[in-house]
Design goal:
Layout (H helix, E strand, L loop, with lengths): L4 E6 L6 H14 L6 E7 L4 H8 L4 E5 L16 H6 L4 E4 L2 H5 L5 H14 L2 E6 L3 H5 L3 H13 L4 H4 L3 E4 L13 H19 L1 H6 L2 E4 L7 H5 L6 E4 L6 H8 L3
Parallel strand pairs: 1-2, 1-8, 2-3, 3-4, 4-5, 5-6, 6-7, 7-8
The chain binds phosphoenolpyruvate.
Length: 251
Amino acid sequence: MARKKIFAGNWKMYTVRDEALALARGIVDGITDSPGRAVVVFAPAVHLREVAALCAGSAVMAGAQNMYFEKEGAFTGEISPAMVKDAGARWILIGHSERRHVFHETDDDVRKKLRAALSEGLFPMVCVGELLDEREAGRSEDVVRVQTERALEGLSKNEAAAVVIAYEPVWAIGTGKVATPEIAQSMHRYIRSVVAAKFGEAVAAGMPILYGGSVKPDNIAGLFAMEDIDGALVGGASLKAASFLDIARVT
Ligand code: PEP
């Protein structure tokens, strides 16, 4: 089965309004439609409505970098799934390593956010990945398996089929130390086997699994050539339209 290819930019806490709109404009104007490929920009929440409006009708979709799992309430500083959707965003990033490690989000938070995203009809991209010391201790697969299983816990097959996973080894994020294509491929295949064990081969075979961690125009081809790598989640190199477009053009 041909899986969807996805290229996503995570703008993190960069860009004031003019910069965000110029970046979105550069991507929208530079992208060419490619069948079976989706392009997503995870913009800062304050820019979401304008970025989503700018992307409307183009091959680029807007997403939020985070949200809370409750519908509404006294949760100062948070945004809800309905607010994300109302702003015009289609996608939501869940469990990014910076959310997990800087803001102490747990696997349980990730699971609740995933359920909330699915009930709101948002497309969820769930991040998993091990720390450097976990890799050095030979625990990468265990860590990623637990994160994946806990995130997907309790979902029906249909719900699981709507999830996109991004494997982002934490030691590769923002460090310039990209995982080799072989390391990434081996983890992607493993994640697919974890999904297959819970939801069956068909769900696993159809699930896009993206790689993230220091992806650049000069290393995407080797990664994307691997059988189980279905695209990329890009941080630093997504902040310049030209380099993000070069990465997405690998398809
Ligand atoms: C990210 O923010 O998800 C990421 C992978 O960052 P970078 O590409 O800068 O490593």
